[in-house]
Structure formats: structure tokens, C-alpha cells
Amino acid sequence: MQIEILTPDTGKKAALLTWLAGQGRLEEAAAGRFQAGAVSMLAGSRYLYLTTTLGSAAEKIIRLLFDIEPVPYATGFYQLSTRQKVLVTAPARPLAEIWGRLASLEHLDLEAGELAGWLVHRHRRQDVALLAEGQLLVQDGVAVCRLRLSGQFRESQQNCQHCLDTWRLAPLLDVFTAQESEPLQPLCQPARGELQASLPVDALPRLMADFPPHCIEYRSGAQAYVLKLGGEDNQLLLRSGAARDRLQAELLLTAPQQLDDRLVGLCRAYPWPPLRIAQRIQGLVLSPADLLGQLGFRKEGGFYEFIYADSSLKACYYIDRREMHIQAETGWPQDRDVLMALFAAVQELAGRVIRLAL
After folding, report:
1. Largest CA distance in the chain
2. What integer best gives the mean pLDDT of the chain?
3. On the CB side of 184, how many CA atoms lie within 13 Å of its CA?
4. Contact, 80 vs 68, CB < 8 A?
């Protein structure tokens, strides 16, 4: 299989070179031509052209070539955008396995072994989606698919990032080619701080009076007022509660370094449950030897569970599901430096286990 990716966005060159450096020995074979492992990149003055034979590498490149941009005239909303084009050449599945998976079929000649059509795949998270549309041609057992990728709809910055982080190329390739097995990379979701609470209904006018006007939004899709606690990725959502005298409050933190301690302090007048900072890693294959030896886990809990605990963190690895949950708890409101340290501890443990993944 050969995957070619072309983009006029030369501003992505630094990010791509940084990623390539982590894939193996990075070499500059000629002026503007770089090679690392199974990936090569040609950097022209007006374009970047990358090729690889690995679907997992192409998936990462495609993600890197997306931007999360603010929506004009819609404060607090963001959208996914990219200018890349992708061309995939691979051995084709039997035609009978392909045509039923297409969005539309334009040409089919079983005797000549020819097929043409369109495939569509939409990956959605919350109210934002990543859309992939492909024009597929099959002839003499070879499939060529030209993909166009784009973002649909608009959402908060963190939901756009979550949509991008969880997108996979494999379901698209599986439509027309039987993919050779290659090591799957663990899917590591970003660390998030979350809590839910019930507040008295009079908390809403009091908080809105205390917060600066530019930090307050109303989102009709979520039917919630949003109070920004610093940056776009730290928010307190307030909705109407089940009872008329109560509010439903939901706190979401993904960028503790952007928190404004003054705004956080405005929440101190109300009772809150503990804030949980969590990160989940899926598709994670670890050996018992590494879990017990290098990572400091213990064999406790259920038959398939390995447990880790220190003064600030807890983690559980489910060896049957190849999944790990890492979490820390603290009180809310909390100082920015304390939250940054907890987020860093969660991310540091996630990095350690990923480096030992088989």
C-alpha cells in the first residue's frame, strides 16, 4: 500500500519534522527531502508532499495537517479545517466485497474487474464531525482512492480536539483493501478534569454578576450558560436543573495552565464535590512483567486488573480489554499550580506506559 499526502500548508513543516524525528533516524537525503522510517517528506517552497506505506503513520500525518480554528462572528465556537489531499493505492478487495460499502456506485464491470464509485465516512463527536469523501477506482486488482477531508459543524475547542484525536483512517481503508496487520498505536485521550454538581438557582445571577461579561456565553445547542475560567478550554457549564430551585453545573478543564485564579476564586462561595482528573488509554498492550516490574503496578482487584497507586494518582489496567484508566482527585476550587502539577503527573504516567507498550 502506498499513501500520498499533499498540502500547500508549508507552515506545518516544523510540526511534521518534529514528529518525523520521533519515528526513527531522521535523514535529509537531498535538499528539502527527508526520510524517517517508513515516511518520506518533500518540502517545496509552496507545498509539502509526504508518502508512507503504513496506515498508522498516514493517520498521524493527516491529524497533524488539521487546524482547529475559531468560527468568525461566533464567539466560543471552533471548527476543523484542512487543505490536504490524500491518494491511496493498494491491492483491492474482491469487487463483491466493495460495492455494498460504497455511498454510490458509478461503474461496475465484473468481467473486466472494474469498479468506480464514492465512499463517505463521517466521524462525529458531540456536534462536530470529520468528513472523509473518497473517489474510488478499481482495475486489475488495484484500488486507487482519492480522499478529500473536511470538518463539519462547530463546537467548543476541546470537543473539536477530541473528535480529531479519536478519528481513525483504518475504517476508510477497510472499505476497499484488506489491510496488512501492523502494530496499532495506543489511542490516548487527552487528560480532562471534570465534576458535576447541583447548585441553588440563585447562583446563576450571582456568578454572572461577578464574572467579566466577555467570559460569559450562552450556547443554544447545549442549552447552557458557559462561564470561562481562563482560555477556551476551561469552562463551567450551568443548565436548568430537574427541580426549579436547582442548577445543574458541569466543570470541564483541559488546559490548567490557562486558568485565571481570580475567576476560579469566584466559585468558592458554593459547595463542590471533588474534581477528578482522568485520562484513558485504549489499545494498550502491556506485559505483566513490565506492569509489575518497571511501572510499579500490583496484582489486585479483579482477575484481569492491575492497580497502581501513589500519593496523588490511581490507575487501573484491564489486561483483557487492553485499556488503562488514570485518575487523580483534588478539591475544587483549586490553585492553578496544584492543578498543573496533577495534570502533569497523570500525563507523565500515561507517557511511561505508552513507551513500554508492546
Report:
1. 75
2. 89
3. 15
4. yes
Q: Where are the domains of the chain?
A: 2-173, 192-265, 275-355
- Reference 270, options 161, 175, 357, 197; nearest CA is 197
Q: What CATH number does the domain located at 275-355 have?
A: 3.30.310
- As a whole number of angstroms, the distance between CA 314 and CA 310 comes to 7
Residue 31, pLDDT score: 77
Q: For residues 80-90, b (16+ Cβ closer than 10 Å) or e, as one string?
A: bebebebebeb
The pLDDT score that the predictor gives to residue 184 is 60
Summarize the confidence of residues 220-238 as an average pLDDT: 89
CB 253 within 8 A of CB 219: no
Average pLDDT (68-80) is 82
Nearest one of 90, 65, 91 to 5, comparing CA atoms: 65
Percentage with pLDDT > 70 across the chain = 97
306-334: burial string, b at 16+ Cβ within 10 Å, e else: bebeeeebebbbebeebbbebbbbbebbb
pTM of the model: 0.56
222 confidence band (pLDDT: 50, 70, 90):
confident
Q: Please check whether residue 113 is in contact with residue 120, taking contact to mean a CB–CB distance below 8 angstroms.
A: no
3-state secondary structure of 187: strand
Number of separate helices (H) and strands (E) present in the chain: 9, 22
- Whether 198 contacts 271, CB under 8 Å: no
Pair type for strands 78-81 and 67-70? antiparallel
What pLDDT is attached to residue 180? Answer: 60
